[in-house]
UniProtKB/TrEMBL annotation:
PANTHER family cross-referenced by the UniProt entry: LONG-CHAIN-FATTY-ACID--COA LIGASE, NONRIBOSOMAL PEPTIDE SYNTHASE PES1 (EUROFUNG)-RELATED
GO molecular function: acid-thiol ligase activity
SUPFAM superfamilies: Acetyl-CoA synthetase-like
Name by which UniProt lists this protein: Fatty-acid--CoA ligase
Domain AMP-binding enzyme C-terminal as annotated: residue spans: 425-500
Length: 519
């Protein structure tokens, strides 16, 4: 299995079909493949050897899509950089991976110029923006024009395809090593689940550096779908792209869905009739937000993909049939689905022993999607992957039908007065209040309870709410000990580059100078 195989197949079977739509420009599969082969040749001329890491720091674009195929085509290894990171974090990922070539666009050009002298592994920088070529950098289009197409190096199976750095919630980020077989296995599972049917147009709205987007794009490459792209997520950009490019499938993380359905642009007249399915994942979604989304997009199917970067990234799928009225009656709507093809999932205790159905434990996954390990971190690899099982750190239970219900990140679980409180359950209750647009629940220090439940809210425009009102609302839905004991209203929640809420940022002011002695 190898990532570029799908491109060969598409060129053979439908070379003149539109492969990419971006910024009013279209490229056929024949044109796209030619540019990929030329970029691969240009990278080789710049010194890329088999297995060399090539990084990219840029917003979404057609050139980003070319980078994702050209690097493995030329024999290299992908290292997509997180666009939301600080210069220190980006520099760390470049140095830690030993990246020798970096592609950068106009948005991050100044940042790269500032830190280039500190990036000792970097030999070459390619400017892939549309403006004038900066001094000391190669021009992207000039490189392609001057290069001859080269044969596909056909790195495959267990060959390293990419190093994908995780968020780094503690210390510096970890580089997740994924092989061609890892990513392809996850892609084939999604294809088998029906997430990329024939005739699709997939929208890259999530950041392309993140494996969530690449993970769902992979089955669309297998299917020979058209790829539409927006530079960065915004409700208006997504709605315009759906209408203009006749998008059928999109991946949106829950925060994006919430921003989309609550945005005034949703009320503007547009033809969104092409849209067939929205897949959500990367973090839990509240039932209230999901209900608003299903009302905003009547006739559109919804599916959930659960996993993590270390799983390439998919482990389970909750299909559209569980998002219907019948699915609700079966109690499967809040599930994260069940093991997808070629993958095993079980819920285990601290010793790795499977727990009884209905009992909360840790999600463990085994299959061809499990990472090769963390780059240069053998001890952390051994702690995460034991006997072939990836221990995810997510707390969940499994029902009698094999569906898992994620209750929280184990590290996010709040222990208040000796009781386990799962933040996702509290967030689901809070989000059902009509004044709340988004929320995040964390544990904060409490002399009386050890930890107290704290809610950070973002309200809908023109809305207000008193803490006691929100707490009373929660008490009608969940046990009193789970309800917030304090409430803060914020202008916005801190988000990662992938759209996940950064609870570490919310916790910082409360836990500074303290040794957190509870989970």
């Amino acid at each position: 299995m190898y990532l570029t195989q799908s491109l060969h197949r598409s060129v053979q079977q439908h070379p003149d079909k539109v492969a990419v739509r971006f910024a009013g420009r279209t490229r056929s599969f024949r044109e796209y493949a030619d540019r990929v082969a030329r970029l691969a040749g240009a990278l080789q001329r710049l010194g890329m050897q088999p297995g060399d890491r090539v990084a990219m720091l840029a917003l979404n674009s057609g050139r980003y899509l070319e980078y994702q195929m050209a690097v493995p085509w030329g024999g290299g290894v992908l290292n997509p950089c997180n666009i939301r990171w600080s210069a220190a974090e980006i520099l760390y990922s470049l140095e830690d991976s030993g990246s020798t070539i970096l592609l950068v666009d106009e948005t991050f050009r100044a940042l790269v110029e500032q830190m280039r002298g500190q990036a000792t592994s970097l030999r070459e920088v390619i400017y892939c923006g549309d403006g004038a070529q900066p001094a000391g950098m190669h021009g992207y289009e000039a490189l392609i024009d001057a290069a001859a197409p080269v044969p596909d190096a056909a790195r495959r199976d267990e060959d390293l395809a990419g190093i994908f750095y995780t968020g780094g919630t503690t210390g510096f980020p970890k580089g997740v090593m994924l092989s061609h077989a890892n990513i392809c296995a996850s892609g084939f599972a999604a294809l088998g689940e029906g997430l990329a049917p024939p005739g699709s147009c997939y929208l890259h709205a999530a950041p392309m550096f993140h494996l969530a987007d690449m993970g769902l794009a992979t089955p669309h490459w297998f299917q020979g779908s058209t790829h539409a792209i927006v530079p960065a997520f915004s409700p208006e950009a997504v709605l315009n792209a759906i209408a203009a490019d006749r998008v059928t499938h999109a991946l949106l993380v829950p925060t994006m869905i919430q921003m989309l359905v609550d945005h005034p642009s949703m009320r503007e007249p547009r033809d969104l009739g092409s849209l067939r399915c929205i897949t959500y994942g990367a973090s839990p979604i509240s039932e209230a937000v999901l209900n608003r989304a299903m009302e905003a997009f009547p006739g559109v199917e919804f599916a959930q993909a659960y996993g993590m970067t270390e799983l390439s990234p998919i482990a389970t799928i909750n299909p559209p049939c569980n998002h219907t009225a019948e699915g609700r009656k079966r109690g499967k709507l809040r599930s994260a689905g069940r093991a997808s093809y070629c993958m095993e999932v079980r819920i285990v205790d601290a010793d790795g022993t499977e727990v009884p159905r209905g009992t909360v434990g840790e999600v463990a996954v085994r299959g061809p999607n499990v990472m090769q390990g963390y780059w240069n971190k053998p001890e952390q690899t051994a702690a995460a992957v034991r006997d072939g099982w990836m221990h995810t750190g997510d707390g969940a239970y499994m029902d009698d039908d094999g569906y898992i219900f994620v209750v929280d990140r184990l590290k996010d679980m709040i222990i208040s007065g000796g009781e386990n409180v799962y933040s996702a359950e509290v967030e689901n209750a809070i989000n059902q209040h009509p004044a709340v647009a988004a929320c995040a629940v964390i544990g904060i220090p409490s002399e009386e309870w050890g930890e107290a439940v704290h809610a950070a809210l973002v309200l809908k425009p023109g809305q207000g709410i008193r803490p006691e009102e929100l707490i009373a609302h929660c008490k009608t839905l969940i046990a009193s000990y789970k309800c917030p004991r304090s409430v803060a209203v914020l202008d916005a929640l801190p988000l990662s580059g992938a759209g996940k809420v950064l609870k570490t940022k919310l916790r910082e002011p409360f836990w500074q100078g303290r040794q957190r002695g509870v989970a």
